[in-house]
Amino acid sequence: MTDNVIWHDLTTLNIEGKGWTDTRGFYDRLPARAEKIVRDPVWNLSRDSAGICARFTSDTTAIHARWSLRKESLAMVHMPATGVSGVDLYVRVGYTWRWLGIGHPATFPDNEVLLCTGLPEGTREYMLYLPLYNGVRSVSLGVPESASFEATPPRTTQPVVFYGTSITQGGCASRPGTCHPAVLGRMLDRATINLGFSGNGKMEKEIAELLAELDPALYVIDCLPNMTADEVAERAPELIRILRAARPQTPILLVEDRTYSNAFLHQDRAERNRSSRAALRQAFAEL
Amino acid sequence: MTDNVIWHDLTTLNIEGKGWTDTRGFYDRLPARAEKIVRDPVWNLSRDSAGICARFTSDTTAIHARWSLRKESLAMVHMPATGVSGVDLYVRVGYTWRWLGIGHPATFPDNEVLLCTGLPEGTREYMLYLPLYNGVRSVSLGVPESASFEATPPRTTQPVVFYGTSITQGGCASRPGTCHPAVLGRMLDRATINLGFSGNGKMEKEIAELLAELDPALYVIDCLPNMTADEVAERAPELIRILRAARPQTPILLVEDRTYSNAFLHQDRAERNRSSRAALRQAFAEL
After folding, report:
1. B214 CA to chain A: closest CA distance, Å?
2. What is the pLDDT of residues A72-127, one digit of tens each?
3. Nearest C-alpha of chain A: how many angstroms from B142?
4. Which helix (H) or strand (E) covers residue A160, if one does?
5. Are A106 and A90 in contact (CB under 8 A)?
6. What span, in angstroms and rounded, lies between the C-alpha atoms of A212 and A15?
7. Do B106 and A77 touch (CB under 8 A)?
8. Structure confidence at residue B75 (pLDDT)
9. What dihedral do alpha carbons B74, B80, B86, B87 form, nearest 10°?
10. CB-CB neighbors (< 8 A) of B100 in chain A
11. Do B119 and A266 touch (CB under 8 A)?
């Protein structure tokens, strides 16, 4: 018996990880109006689909994926194509989520893969993460014609917003599901909104004002790796003021930078870690 | 003051991770005569420099590296170029080793990078790991003319030999120093010999006979991910017999395969894990 594959466009599903619906491309991370507000590098990075995922429920025994990438460069020298440009499938098992299959990006712009097959019968909830350092023009999921396929109902909980650097965006995760905002989202079973901008998480006022439009359970501010101590001293108080004015009750988590792995021998790196942290603590103390 | 960089070819240093000196290429992992003995894929993979490293002692404040790669493909879709084709620098700190710098492979065949600079004064012991899934024709280290540069004396301890699959060879480590034989080598402060052959760690008799030529502290046999239960049942007893006959006192560690991350839902994968392990335990029980 042949069972035709029926394709479902991801835009018909419940998409998580988008802070705004008024985006230029469907899978952009900032609203269209941000193009004239934020610096060009931030705008360009906002078109990467980091942290965006789709949830669906199906009794399928096989799942196919098609996705069309925006940028021809599928990998970075220190990050594999699977993380930069791949799609990553998880399934809910009891109270947790488990990894099920990775879609290898082999060509530009279009890819089609069989993410899993031979699954035992049963209706399950799935989640597909999109590329971390590439953008997508379109994504579809394919299941056999006989299988059910429905959007999972939206969550009733507020999301967690992460604003940060390349590390937040997902550098250098092997798969889209293994960057820390995605891992934490599964652990907390909450939507997360990834506003990591590689090299460009700089606590800028225009980003602070965009963040203030959101209504999350928590703001995670994790910009120190992209900032000097002077920048932190200048910008952190204003960022916090803007968020606090808009969201008086929302917790704001100020994250210190990671210690550079080789800071024990590179005194300039150790000093950068030390001075940025001191500036952030000072900003907090003076609130 | 200009301080010229003096280049030192790695072949003048104490090289670790080579089981044989009678190799065709200096950085090959099997002896030249193996070309006519082992299957072609094993021979080709043996020319990747996985696990080979060089130890040196220097009072330099900067370290440059030049390396010439054998294969044009610098990365794999699921493994970054840094791990596949990079060089990776560690430094001894007290009783442990710490990471210091990665050489990004940017071009084929030749690369030159500054691995670290601005180090505080002091004589230190360093270790440079070579690419995991590429081979090298030549490698040189550069230090300022005024710096000392010497081979670290060879260790007096026996090495640990790892025979296995892609996982042993280093898939999919981000850097050459982060595959598990390298990590264990630093933890144990011993030389390790990486005889991982991606997709081709199959407990073959000809490899067993080559392994028997070595005189390690421990044989780690980690082939199950590349074998069926029938192959394990057929080959494990002979492999162990050959090693035991040649090295009556040397411990042999039989490693079970890792559970496939998605085996909880893919029954065929769970069954493969189960049956291979049963065959290995049976072989052990019947020794």
Report:
1. 35
2. 999 999 999 999 999 999 999 988 999 999 999 999 999 999 999 999 999 999 99
3. 19
4. strand A160-164
5. no
6. 21
7. yes
8. 97
9. -160
10. 262, 265
11. yes
Number of H helices, E strands in chain B: 7, 14
Distance CA B92, CA B95 (A): 7
Question: What mean pLDDT do residues B157-184 have?
Answer: 98
C-alpha–C-alpha distance, residues B163 and B7, integer Å? 34
Interchain CB distance below 8 Å, A80 and B82: no
Q: Which of B79, B99, B124, B87 is nearest to B186 (CA)?
A: B99
Q: Which residues contact A90 (CB under 8 A, 6 or more apart)?
A: A97, A98, A99, A100, A126, A127, A128, A129, A177, A186
Per-residue pLDDT of B184-220, as tens digits, reads 999 999 999 999 999 999 999 999 999 999 999 999 9
CA distance A122 to chain B (A): 11
Q: Structure tokens of B128? A: 């440079």
pLDDT tier, A51 (very low <50, low <70, confident <90, very high otherwise): very high
With beta carbons less than 8 A apart as the criterion, state whether B254 and B262 touch.
Answer: no
d(CA B243, CA B219): 9
Euclidean distance between CA atoms A46 and A28, whole angstroms: 6
Give all domains of chain B, ordered by start, each with its CATH number. 5-151 (2.60.120.260), 160-285 (3.40.50.1110)
Assigned token pair, A246: 């808009």
The answer to whether residues B159 and B16 touch, using CB atoms and an 8 Å cutoff, is yes
Residue B191: both structure tokens together: 């030389």
A162-174: pLDDT as tens digits: 999 999 999 999 9
| pLDDT score at A1 | 46
Q: Distances in Å between the alpha carbon of A225 and those of A37, A132, A199, A208, B258?
A: 23, 19, 8, 17, 35
Report which of B247, B257, B274, B273 is spatially closest to residue B223, judged by C-alpha positions: B257
Average confidence score pLDDT of chain A:
96
Tokens of B95: 């009783």
Residue A149 C-alpha from the chain's centroid: 24
Q: Do A77 and B262 touch (CB under 8 A)?
A: no
Task: Choose among A144, A43, A128, A47: nearest CA to A92.
Answer: A128
Q: What distance in Å separates residue A26's CA from the closest CA in chain B?
A: 26
Asked whether residue B5 carries a pLDDT value surpassing 90, the answer given is yes
Q: Chain B: which residues have CB within 8 Å of chain A?
A: 74-82, 91, 93, 98-102, 104-106, 116, 118-120, 172, 174, 261-262, 264-268
Cβ-Cβ contacts under 8 Å, B118 against chain A: 266-268
The answer to whether the Cα torsion of B279, B281, B282, B287 is positive or negative is positive
Closest C-alpha among A201, A206, A167 to residue A51: A167
Query: From CA B239, how far away is CA B222, in angstroms rounded?
Result: 12
**By the 8 A CB rule, do B148 and B58 touch?**
yes
pLDDT score recorded for residue B2: 56
pLDDT by residue (tens digit) across B29-47? 999 999 999 999 999 999 9
Amino acid (1-letter code) at residue A188: L
**Residue B135, Cβ neighbours under 10 Å: how many?**
23
